[in-house]
Amino acid sequence: MFRPKIPTMPAPTGHISPPAVVEPTTIVPAAQTPQPAPVAPASAPSRPTVQLTPGTALALVGGGTGVVLVVGAVLVSMLLAVAITGASVAVCAVVLRSLLTSETKRC
Question: Can you give the pTM of this predicted structure?
């Protein structure tokens, strides 16, 4: 049951004949020419250097702190929304249960 079934190749039907004409092909190697190596300019650097001054470092730290505070505030507000919704649903369930039990006691 758990072993895979390997399909069998069906036997070909009909008459099979080999191709009528087989022409040999010749392989001609292409002329190999070495490609010149790319030369980098010596005077211009490939990447500009980044220099952090105290002002830019302070701006980066301030920006990162701001992002962390905003993301934290959003997550806390979402958690509070879920908690308030759960509490309100629980209060509604208690009120409905008390109403239904009071109705059954009257009859």
Answer: 0.44
Question: Per residue in 36-54, pLDDT tens?
Answer: 666 665 555 577 777 889 8
Entry field: residues in the chain? 107
Contacts of residues 46-54 at CB distance under 8 Å and 24 or more positions apart, as own/partner, are none
What does the alpha-carbon distance between residue 39 and residue 7 come to, in Å, rounded to a whole number? 58
Buried b / exposed e over 3-35, threshold 16 CB at 10 Å, is eeeeeeeeeeeeeeeeeeeeeeeeeeeeeeeee
**In whole angstroms, what is the distance from residue 66 CA to residue 61 CA?**
9
* DSSP conformational letter for 31: P
- Name 52's Cβ contacts closer than 8 Å, sequence gap at least 6: 60
Amino acid at 70: V
Q: d(Cα 100, Cα 93) in Å, to the nearest integer?
A: 11
Who's near 46: CB < 8 A, 6+ residues apart?
40
